[in-house]
């Protein structure tokens, strides 16, 4: 296990510790989708909740639970550990959107800080591992939508000059430049974060020497970038 992967595991263990104070509580919700046994299981010890039920909570709409924020908060260590290690098999954009709906940034400081530490450790581990358990695009989308900001993650990427980081950059380019997707790129299950202008500007200016993809010189891409920057200046 690499140094950065070990740091991620340490951050996940710290997340478990921070959320250990979240006690079980009687969970109630949609009895059409979840039977009495499911609700009883969700109301019991965290480590005895099945992976399938954790995945269900991770994806379910908040209205299915009488106290969605509390339930999602209690299951957060299970959800996040499975997500960052590639074992949850749930759209990363959906996880980010559900965290926002649970208002995770308003949770008690130790809980929110522990999550921040996981985001940072996960991103560093991703930039030092190629291929990574979760695609770089999914990871970037989750941390961006969850924190409401893209630039700090891009700055870290620009400062990380490793073969793995460059390989991940090539993967992202191949993904977002297909059919000009980058010109209308949104992150989050509900397209909460418009990343198009910010990401394209970063690719063309901050890491162009490492972004070895001729599609970045496409006249349509360059024209779109110029038009979007002019609009930003006008605002």
**Tally of DSSP β-strands:** 2
β-strand amount: under 5%
Largest sheet: 2 strands, antiparallel
The share of residues in helices is 55-70%
Query: In which order are the strands of the major sheet placed?
Result: 1-2
Shape: elongated
Low-pLDDT runs: none
Supply the helix-strand structural class: mainly alpha
How far apart the termini lie comes to 47 Å
- Give the count of helical stretches: 11
H/E topology pattern: HHHHHHHHHEEHH
Which value, in Å, is the CA radius of gyration?
19 Å
Q: For the residues shown, what is the average pLDDT?
A: 94
Short description:
The protein contains eleven helices and two strands. The chain has 235 residues and is mainly α.
Structure write-up:
There is one protein chain. By secondary structure, this protein is mainly α. The chain is 59% helix and 2% strand. It has eleven helices and two strands; from the N terminus they run αααααααααββαα. The chain has a two-stranded antiparallel ribbon. The chain starts with a helix and ends with a helix. The model has no long low-confidence stretch (mean pLDDT 94).
């Amino acid at each position: 296990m690499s140094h950065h992967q070990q740091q991620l595991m340490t951050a996940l263990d710290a997340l478990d510790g921070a959320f250990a104070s979240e006690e079980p509580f009687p969970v109630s919700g949609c009895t059409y989708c979840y039977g009495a046994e499911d609700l009883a299981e969700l109301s019991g010890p965290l480590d005895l909740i099945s992976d399938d039920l954790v995945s269900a909570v991770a994806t379910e709409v908040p209205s299915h639970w009488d106290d969605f924020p509390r339930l999602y908060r209690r299951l957060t260590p299970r959800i996040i550990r499975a997500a960052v290690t590639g074992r949850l098999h749930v759209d990363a954009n959906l996880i980010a959107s559900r965290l926002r709906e649970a208002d995770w940034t308003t949770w008690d400081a130790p809980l929110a800080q522990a999550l921040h530490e996981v985001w940072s450790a996960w991103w560093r581990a991703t930039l030092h591992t190629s291929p990574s358990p979760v695609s770089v695009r999914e990871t970037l989308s989750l941390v961006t939508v969850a924190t409401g900001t893209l630039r700090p993650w891009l700055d870290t990427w620009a400062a990380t000059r490793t073969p793995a980081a460059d390989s991940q950059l090539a993967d992202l380019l191949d993904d977002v430049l297909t059919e000009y997707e980058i010109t209308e790129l949104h992150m989050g299950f509900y397209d909460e974060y418009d990343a198009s202008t910010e990401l394209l500007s970063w690719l063309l200016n901050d890491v162009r020497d490492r972004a070895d993809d001729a599609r970045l010189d496409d006249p349509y891409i360059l024209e779109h970038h110029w038009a979007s920057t002019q609009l930003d200046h006008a605002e």
